[in-house]
Predict the structure.
Amino acid sequence: MASAIIGAAALAPTFHHFLSSKTSTLTRSRSKSVATLALLFVAAVFPQFAYAMDYSTGTGLVRDFVSWLFVDAGPYVFMAILGICVLGVPKGWIPMKGAVIAVICSFVFFAVPSIVRYAASVASSQI
């Protein structure tokens, strides 16, 4: 928590610069130097974060999120879409044709992967 407070306090002048609409050349150059000093301060105080994020970490996070979304949370997303369509069609918010397409697509993209993963885990436990 302290690191977030220190970082926010160090970067506050830079955020103020980008939020203000009228800036002069002197203000821009001063805020660039403040931003540079703030980044150097953050890098000096927290060197452990300098190489913490690389390409493999980013792709790993994206892969884990997509796996969670389509496999672990898939049935819940499908049920949410189905519930929205069940409520929206009678009220006239969603046309019936669009609701049918949405339900079929969400079943294919969200429910089928979780069914396949469940079947694979059951089959591997039976071997």
